[in-house]
Each structure stands twice: as C-alpha cells, then as structure tokens.
C-alpha cells in the first residue's frame, strides 16, 4: 500500500507514526509545505481539553482524548521522554465567572489528580478568585516532539517531502491512500467553509523558577516548559489571520500574567509568537471520502480542525484515522 500523509505539524507527524506502527509494509511519504513553521511550534502543549472540543459523538471524543493521554503518558515513561519533550506537570486553574471554568469533564477522570483548590492555595496567586482546581497532567514541547517524530519516521523509511499542494488530486494516481492533516490549509484544499482561524499570540519568557502552571480564567495562562522557558498567554481572535505581532496584545498578556503571578515581572522576554489555530465549527473532521482525478481515484481520510487542541488530541484522532484507512482499504480490495 502507498500512503501519502499531507501536513507536517503535530497531527500529520503523529498520524504517520501511528500508521507506521499498524501498517509496517506500507510505503509512506509525508508531504508538507513547511516542516519547521507550523502552528504546532507555537503551542504550549499542555494536556488540557476544553469543553468546546468535539468529535462526531461523545463516545468517540472520549476515546480520542483517552488514547491521546495514554500515548503521551507511554512516551513520558519511556527512555525517549526527554528527547520527545514529554513530561508531567501540575498546576492550578482559577476563575470568577463560573465553577465550570475550572473543571474539565473530558479529563477530570483521566489525569491522576484533579481536585478543588484549598483555601491556602488561593493565596498562591494575585487576585480574588472564587473558584479553583489543582491538577496533574502532561506537557508536550513541540519544539522537541516534532523533530523527534521526524527522526523516528525517517529511521524506518518514511519519506518527508516539501511540496505545496493546490489540490489533493495532485497525488493521484501515484498514491492510492491519502490522509489529510493540513489543519487550516484544508479550508482551501477541501473547500471547507466550516474551518476558521483563531489567532493566538504568546510570549516566551525565561523564568526557570516557575515549575507550576497557572490559569486565571481561560484567557490568562502561565505554562512552564523545558529549560526554564515559560509560555505566557494568551489570545483568541476568531477569523483573524494577521500574523504580525501586536505590541498592545503583548502588553495586555504580560499585565494579566504578572497580576496573577507577580514574580514574573523579573522574567526576561525571549521571543513573541503568533499562530493560527484551525477551528472547525461543530466538530473535528476525521472521516473518509473518495476523490477522483481523471480515470483514477483514491481514498482520502481527513484528520483536521482540532482548534487549540491539536497537540492534546493528535494521537487519538491519528489512531482513529488509521483505523478508518485500514477499513476503507480492505473494503476497496474486497470490491476488486
């Protein structure tokens, strides 16, 4: 079987790794317009899935999230953990708007610890918060995970090719199975009008003393990463595709984060980054279809539209997409 995976971000590379595990004899190539500049590189990578995240059904969504957590947790326990950038992290979520803001019905029963914050713990941060939770979860640093994934793929013969596609049909007839992991790029490749961008801006600062993450509502977050680098965020601007840094937004982010954790006032700025999250109205798209180019046709498995939860849920949707691919391939063989 010849399989083309389109997309070089966390969803595409994780799907390729999953495919490699389950179809060892397949000839696989990952196509991407750029492997080094994807929205995945901007993400803080904390395993926290918001209530708005949705697959086609609640059961499937829970499977995706559970499979994703187990995938990263297995890496965390392995000798590859430091190379892949996967570790355990604990922290707090505080809110005034609603007690639901500090809960997560998707992961409360999945992570090892998820409890209410104590009265003493409310004193750890600035502000007068009404609601709080403490949890232990996972963190995946994509600046480590993505190069690690590419190395793993190349070691076992998967090709990585830089190529900009205007249509998925360009891959026919050479590739009879295509997995589309193009994120926001699927809007034009698939003419998917449900796909919109959510612009996000973050600041990376040097604060090696920060070991715990903090959320103040959901628009303010402080997430320690590797080597003393801490992500300060954030912003969510629907339908905005402005990739230029906004100094006023940076000032607002820094102000909110410093009010939450005053010690960050002495943190030096390393860089500021902008990314466009691929948000799909209704639900993430992981489904199959047939496409045609002249007399030739191919099976396409779509796997995109993860919004701000691509790093979190890529392994789960990848496993589901590969299973779909196997079923469609068997079905097509049976019809011959």
TrEMBL record:
Record-listed D-dopa binding positions: 221, 277, 308
A Pfam short name: DAO
Domain FAD dependent oxidoreductase: from-to ranges: 2-324
GO biological process per UniProt: D-amino acid catabolic process
Domain of life the protein comes from: Eukaryota
InterPro entries recorded: D-amino_acid_oxidase_CS, DAO, FAD-dep_OxRdtase
Keywords: FAD, Flavoprotein, Oxidoreductase
GO cellular component, as recorded: cytoplasm
Keyword presence, Oxidoreductase: yes
Binding of FAD, residues: 182
Cofactors (names): FAD
A single GO molecular function term of this UniProt record: D-amino-acid oxidase activity
PROSITE patterns: DAO (PS00677)
Family named by the database record: Belongs to the DAMOX/DASOX family.
Protein's recorded name: D-aspartate oxidase
């Amino acid at each position: 079987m010849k399989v083309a995976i389109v997309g070089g971000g966390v969803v595409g590379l994780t799907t390729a790794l999953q495919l490699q595990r389950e179809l060892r004899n397949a000839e696989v190539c990952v196509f991407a317009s750029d492997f080094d500049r994807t929205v995945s590189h901007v993400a803080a990578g904390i395993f926290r899935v918001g209530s708005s995240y949705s697959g086609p059904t609640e059961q499937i969504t829970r499977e995706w999230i559970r499979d994703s957590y187990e995938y990263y947790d297995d890496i965390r326990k392995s000798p590859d953990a430091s190379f892949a950038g996967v570790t355990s992290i604990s922290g707090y979520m505080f809110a005034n708007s609603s007690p639901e803001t500090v809960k997560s019905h998707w992961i409360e029963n999945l992570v090892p610890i998820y409890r209410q914050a104590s009265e003493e713990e409310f004193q750890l941060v600035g502000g007068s918060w009404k609601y709080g939770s403490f949890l232990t979860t996972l963190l995946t640093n994509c600046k480590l995970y993505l190069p690690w994934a590419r190395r793993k793929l190349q070691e076992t013969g998967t090709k990585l090719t830089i190529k900009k596609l205007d249509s998925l049909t360009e891959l026919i007839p050479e590739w009879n199975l295509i997995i589309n992991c193009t994120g926001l790029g699927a809007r034009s490749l698939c003419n998917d009008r449900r796909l919109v961008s959510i612009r996000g801006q973050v600041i990376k600062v040097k604060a090696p003393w920060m070991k715990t993450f903090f959320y103040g509502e959901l628009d303010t977050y402080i997430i320690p990463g590797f080597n003393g680098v801490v992500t300060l965020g954030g912003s969510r601007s629907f339908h905005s595709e402005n990739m230029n840094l906004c100094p006023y937004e940076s000032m607002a982010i820094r102000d909110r984060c410093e009010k939450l954790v005053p010690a960050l006032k002495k943190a030096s700025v390393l860089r500021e980054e902008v990314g466009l999250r691929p948000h799909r109205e209704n639900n993430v798209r992981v489904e199959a279809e047939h496409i045609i180019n002249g007399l030739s046709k191919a099976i396409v498995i779509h796997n995109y539209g993860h919004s701000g939860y691509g790093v979190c849920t890529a392994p789960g949707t990848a496993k589901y997409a590969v299973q779909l691919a196997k079923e469609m391939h068997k079905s097509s063989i049976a019809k011959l």
